[in-house]
Each structure stands twice: as structure tokens, then as C-alpha cells.
Amino acid sequence: MHWTPRRENFRALLEGDKCIHPGSVYDAMSARMAEDIGFEVGMFAGSTASLAVLGAPDLIVLTLTEFAGQAYRINRAGNLPLMVDADHGYGNALNVKRTVEELETAGVAGLTIEDTDLPRPYGTTKPQLISIEEGVGKMKAALAGRQDKTLSIAGRTSAPGITGIEDAIARAKAYEKAGVDAMFFAGVKTRPELEAIAAEIKIPIFLGSTPPEINDTEYLGGQNVRIALRGHAPIHAAMKAAYDTLKTLREGALSSDIENVAGGDLKDMMIRGSDYKKWMKDFLASG
Amino acid sequence: MHPASVFDAMSARMAEDLGFEMGMFSGSVGSLSVLGVPDIVLLTLSEFAAQAYRINRAGNLPLAVDADHGYGNALNVRRTVEELETAGVVALSIEDTDLPRPYGTSKNRLIPIKEGMDKIRAALDARQDPNLVIAARTTVGITPFEEVVERAKAYATTGVDALFFAGMKTREQLEQVSDAVDLPIGLGSTPPVLSGDLDYLSSKNVKSALQGHLPIHAAMKAAYDTLKALREGTPPGEIENVAGGDLKDMMIRGKDYKAWLKDFLASG
Lengths: 287, 268
Description:
The complex is a heterodimer. Helices cover about 50% and strands about 10% of the residues of chain A. Chain A has 13 helices and eight strands. In chain A, helix 5 packs parallel to helix 6, helix 6 packs parallel to helix 8 and helix 8 runs parallel beside helix 9. The longest helix of chain A has 18 residues. Chain A is globular, with a radius of gyration of 20 Å. Chain B is an alpha/beta fold. The model of chain B has no long low-confidence stretch (mean pLDDT about 95). Classes of the chains: A alpha/beta, B alpha/beta. The interface between A and B is large, with 71 and 72 residues.
């Protein structure tokens, strides 16, 4: 498949002046939903991938192969530019390079590599960061792994909540110098924090969770924030809906009594039924 | 019994926690959960077996799967059984529909009975663990009902463990096949005249009656409604009907990980 056009669309958003909220997606159908509903970008997080593929907590037990496989399932379903959270790049800088190669092949439009020390080191209870030097090496390895220059590679740091805003800025400047296209910050809580960051770096800013104080897309756009996540409610809604349905059936309800399931129209839209109807006619002399 | 229709790791855990004796992973649901495509055999064996493995590794629920036509001819059926056995399924069905849809046809049709029997023989031959249950599956409504009975009898002679019928509509039809063959019966969609009366079904040797595949359709609608509400500006905190901490923690087996973090990583 040809992934470059969606990467160019993603880059155009980064070069614009607006902040957008991506749709949190986790499989082929949720990606189609996000595209149909009008989201400009889909976001596939490491935490969501752990849920969708394994039903595991966000503790890096998912493999790169599984993550890239699910990203490919998402990408092949439509044309939504997909941004993925590639965690720490599944190992050291050489694993980062491999991560970029696999995710580029899987069709992602943008990816982040973070400088958290993952998986959790022995004897620690709180997240900690790798050194800036190692972080720079990982960013350089990520950029070296890229073949399609339209693929966006962002550095990601959780420094705001671990070591503080000054360290976050120092890291962002170092990664910017290494050549990353954007910088993702997790744990920014206040407007002064964001403004201190925005004053120091020129590349576009991505934010993880956005607390109410800063959750104003116009303000965020003015601070060079191009992407702000808003949690991962869709997969949690799907989880609850499946659970409630199985529970009701197990308690003796008949299928016909079950409410709130996708009807024919929504399902047909999600499977692109009209395309298949046409292809069956055109290519199989069927129907 | 009614198996639970499951489609991924978490739905399998839900079914197990809720007390279902068995999970069912069908080809149509595999097509939806992996690719989001219609049930027209576009999914590959590799993709289907991998999703079955994801389901099986999540817990201990016995999983029956609908292996469609075995992804090709009788040799592909052998391969299908090998891959699905490795993926951990407890039962699988191989059907005698001519799939994928042959050129120039608009309705499903069946392969000859002899080819169907040989496909079942290939399936039985490929099995390494004798505890894996293999069922022959045929569809009611394509050919006259006498042929359904004839196929059931023919497949029974291969040594297959069970018979699975899609499209069974009436009690008379069910009684004809349960009189003709002495094998456990599985039913696909169960119309109102058959569903909801497990005692009657048990008396006709029906061991498993599917109730459709509502869970994945409920998940589909919930994800759609949530994305739509977010796109229309609803703040994430105001979105209702999402899994809260308790349900999520149960689904990710959070307690196990907490214990393992403490035991093996000296963490927490």
C-alpha cells in the first residue's frame, strides 16, 4: 500500500496553526469510524494496544511485532493518518531503529519515541528517565531508521511529571537539535509550564492528557500545540458494551432483547459493504 | 448450552468470568475484528489462527472456532487443523460450502458430498491431540433438506466428533437429523422456535446453540457513539458508559500484575 499521501496530510497539520484532538483508535473498525466522523488523525497508543491485543496493563509486555501488526491492521482499513506511541522503541537505540522500520512499513504517519526507562527497572516503583545522552542517541537512531522522509518522528518525554519542566525543556532542545519533527510531552499541567516549553522550542508540540486549565484548542494552537490527546474512551466504551451484552445474555436474555448493538447500517458502513457489493458484481459476476 | 461469542482477549476473559462454559470465535467475527470486512473469506488462515491464539492465551475458556471451509482444499484443511490446534482451540468446524464464492454465482452452494467427506478425513488426519474436537459443518437451505440428512450421515461415517448446522429453521428439521445420526449437534443461528428452550435442544442431542454475535456489535456501536460524542465536543469526563477502573482492572488481570511486579521486580 502507498502510505506517503497520508503522511503528507499529517505533516500539513503539523505545519498549520491549529491544535487538533485525534480519535483514539485501536483496530480496523474504530479507525474507519474516526475517519468517517471527521477526525483528521487517529492515535494508537501503547496502552490501548496492550488492551486490544493482549488485554494486558500498560507495562510493555506487548512486543514490537504485535504492535506493528495491529498498526498495520488499522492502517490498511482506510486513509486516516495514524499517529502511534511507540513507547521506548522496544529496547535500546538499535531496537529503536528497528521499531521505526517496522512501523514505517506498517503505514503509520507519525510516531513517538520516549525517554522513559522501560520496561520498569528492577526495584523501582515510579517511572524514571534515561539520560539525555541516551535519549539523543535513540532519537538519532529513529531518524536513521526512516526511509520515507514524510514519516514524522517525534521525541516524547514524561519529564514534566518526573524531573520537572526545566529538565523537560533541556531534553526537548536536545532532541530538537538531533532533528526530530515534533516533541510530545506527557504530564504538562499548567499554562505557565506549557508557555515555558513553547518559548524554548520551535518544533510542533504534542500533549498527552490535557487538564481542564489548558484544554482550550485555540489557546493550545497559539502555543504551537498541534496535537492534544483526550484519553482513550472508545476502547473502554467497547469493553463495557461487550461486557454488558455478554452478561445480559448469560443471565438469560434472548438475542432479540439486546439493545445498543450496531444495526445493519452502521455495520455495513464499517465493513464498507457497498464496495464489496460492487466488487462482487464487477469481478466475480456475482449478485 | 449457549456459547459466548468472543472476538479478542478481553471478550474471552469476560465470557469466562461471567460463567460461560465455552467461547465461540466465528469466521464472520474474525473478519470483523481483524480486518473490518464482510464475511466473504478474505481473512487468511494466518490471521484467523493468530486471533484465536490471542483469545486462547488470555485465559482458560474452551474455545470453539468456525474454520470456514478450511481455507482451500483438503490439504489446506490439514494445515488449518495444524495451525488452530497450535493456537489452542478445543473444537473447530470445517464446512462444505464452496468458498470463496465461485465466479458467476450469487448464492452459496455446496461442494460434492465426497469432497466434503475427504475434507473431514483430512481434518481428522491432521489432528495430533486426540482431545481436539472436530466438527463437520453444513448449511441448511441451500439444497433440499433430504440432502442435509444425507450429508450428515456421510460425514458421520468419517469418524468426525460432531455435526454443526447453520440455518436450521424448525423442530422437524432438527429432529430429522438427530434421528438420523448419533453425534453431538451444534447449531449456528438459532431461530426463536429453537432458542430459549435448552431442555428441548438437549433432548435432541444439541450441545451448543449459538445466539448470534452480539458482543462485537455492541462494542462497535459503543466505540462509534463515543468517537462521535468526542468529535462533537463532549469532554472526555462527560462520556458515559465506559469501562471504569474495576471492570478494566478485571479485564487486564491487574491483581496478577500487581503481585508479579512485587514478586519479581521488587516494585510497588
